[in-house]
TrEMBL record:
It comes from Schizosaccharomyces pombe (Fission yeast). This is ribonuclease III. It catalyses: Endonucleolytic cleavage to 5'-phosphomonoester. Gene3D superfamilies: 3.30.160.20, Ribonuclease III domain. One of its GO terms (biological process) is termination of RNA polymerase II transcription, exosome-dependent. PROSITE patterns: DS_RBD, RNASE_3_1, RNASE_3_2. Residues 1-35, 92-137 are annotated as: Disordered. GO terms for molecular function: double-stranded RNA binding; ribonuclease III activity.
Length: 363
C-alpha cells in the first residue's frame, strides 16, 4: 500500500509538473500571439497614419486655408499641432528625396538664383541696407498675437473646447490677412515693374515670389523662426524647422502691420524685400510663333534641322530646355514653360546665330 501510495504521489508530482509546463507553454504561446497581434496592429496603424498624412498633405497643398480650418473645427489644436509636425516631417523628407537637380539655363527667369541668395549692397539699391529694417508694431498686443502659434494657444488654455475663443490668441487669422496682402502687394509691384509681361507670365512670376520658400526666407531674416512662440509638443515635433510654419509667421506679422494702420509702410517693406528678386529677372522678348517655320523655309534645303529636349524637369514650374540642332550641331538652346515655347525660342536664337555665322554649321 505504501509503495502504491508513494507511486501515486509520484504520479501526482509528475502530473503537476506536466500541467505547469503546459500552462507555461500556453502563456508563452499566448504572449507570442498577443505580441504578434500587437505588432500587426502597430503596422496597420502606421499604414493608416501614413495614408492620412499624405492625404492631408495633398489637401493642404491644394487648399491652403480652408482644409486646415475645417480640420481645426473637429480636431483640438493640440492634436493638430502633433499631426502638423508629422506632416511637416514627412513633407520635408519627401521633398529632400524628390528634389530635382537642374542646371538652369541663362534664359530661364530663375537664372540668377545664386545671386538671389547674396544680400545686395547699398550701391545696388538706392534704398540702402538689406534686409530693410523691420517695421515696428505700435500695438504690443498685435506683436504678441502675430508670434503666437496655435499650438501654444491650446497649451495655455487646455480646457478650451471652442476653437473660436482662441482666434484672438493665436496668429492664424493674421496669417490669412497677411497672405492676401502679400499677394496684393506683389501683384502691384510686378505689374508696375514689368509692363511688357502678359497675364500668364505675371501669374507665374507672382507664384514664385509669394510662395512659402520666399516667405520663409524673409521671416528668417528677422529671426521670426526664433521668436515664434510654440508649445512644448510643437517644439518636440520640430515645427520651428518647418518652412510653412515660419512662412506663416512672416505673413502673420504682415497682417498685423495692416491692422496696426501701417498699410503703406507694409507695402514699402515688401517692395524692398523683393528688390533682389526683381533685379535678377530677365524679361524675354515676345515669342515669335513662326520662328520654326522661318528657320525651316530658310535652311531646310541646306541641312537637317531637329529639336531635342535636353534639360528641364518638365511642367510649367520647371519648364523645358530645347536645343535646336542643325546638321548634327547644336546651334542654340532655350527655356520655355512648355515644349512649344522653348522650341520657338530656340528657333529664334538659331535664326540669329545662322545669319551671323552659317559656315560653322554647314555640311
Amino acid at each position: 500500500m505504501g509503495r502504491f501510495k508513494r507511486h501515486h504521489e509520484g504520479d501526482s508530482d509528475s502530473s503537476s509538473s506536466a500541467s505547469d509546463s503546459l500552462s507555461r507553454g500556453r502563456r508563452s504561446l499566448g504572449h507570442k500571439r498577443s505580441s504578434h497581434i500587437k505588432n500587426r496592429q502597430y503596422y496597420i496603424l502606421e499604414k493608416k497614419i501614413r495614408k492620412l498624412m499624405f492625404a492631408m498633405k495633398a489637401l493642404l497643398e491644394e487648399t491652403k486655408h480652408s482644409t486646415k480650418d475645417d480640420v481645426n473645427l473637429v480636431i483640438p489644436g493640440s492634436t493638430w499641432s502633433h499631426i502638423e509636425g508629422v506632416y511637416e516631417m514627412l513633407k520635408s523628407r519627401h521633398d529632400r528625396q524628390n528634389e530635382p537637380v537642374i542646371e538652369e539655363p541663362s534664359s530661364h527667369p530663375k537664372n540668377q538664383k545664386n545671386q538671389e541668395n547674396n544680400e545686395p549692397t547699398s550701391e545696388e539699391f538706392e534704398e540702402g541696407e538689406y534686409p530693410p529694417p523691420l517695421p515696428p508694431l505700435r500695438s504690443e498686443k498685435l506683436k504678441k498675437h502675430a508670434l503666437m502659434h496655435i499650438s501654444r494657444a491650446y497649451e495655455i488654455y487646455p480646457n478650451q473646447s471652442n476653437p473660436n475663443e482662441l482666434l484672438d490668441i493665436h496668429n492664424e487669422r493674421l496669417e490669412f490677412l497677411g497672405d492676401s496682402f502679400f499677394n496684393l502687394f506683389t501683384t502691384r509691384i510686378i505689374f508696375s515693374k514689368f509692363p511688357q509681361m502678359d497675364e500668364e507670365s505675371l501669374s507665374k512670376l507672382r507664384a514664385k515670389f509669394v510662395g512659402n520658400e520666399s516667405a520663409d526666407k524673409f521671416a528668417r531674416l528677422y529671426g521670426f523662426d526664433k521668436t515664434l512662440v510654440l508649445s512644448y509638443s510643437a517644439e518636440k515635433d520640430q515645427l520651428r524647422k518647418s518652412q510653412k510654419v515660419i512662412a506663416d509667421t512672416f505673413e502673420a506679422y504682415l497682417g498685423a502691420l495692416i491692422l496696426d494702420g501701417q498699410e503703406e509702410t507694409a507695402f514699402q517693406w515688401v517692395s524692398r524685400l523683393l528688390q533682389p528678386k526683381i533685379a535678377n529677372i530677365t524679361v524675354q522678348r515676345p515669342i515669335d510663333k513662326l520662328a520654326k517655320s522661318k528657320l525651316f523655309h530658310k535652311y531646310s534645303t541646306l541641312g537637317h534641322i531637329e529639336y531635342r529636349w535636353v534639360d528641364g524637369a518638365g511642367g510649367s514650374a520647371e519648364g523645358y530646355v530645347i536645343a535646336c540642332i542643325f546638321n548634327g550641331k547644336e546651334v542654340a538652346r532655350a527655356w520655355g514653360a512648355n515644349q512649344k515655347d522653348a522650341g520657338s525660342r530656340a528657333a529664334m536664337q538659331a535664326l540669329e546665330v545662322l545669319a551671323k555665322d552659317y559656315s560653322k554649321f554647314a555640311r
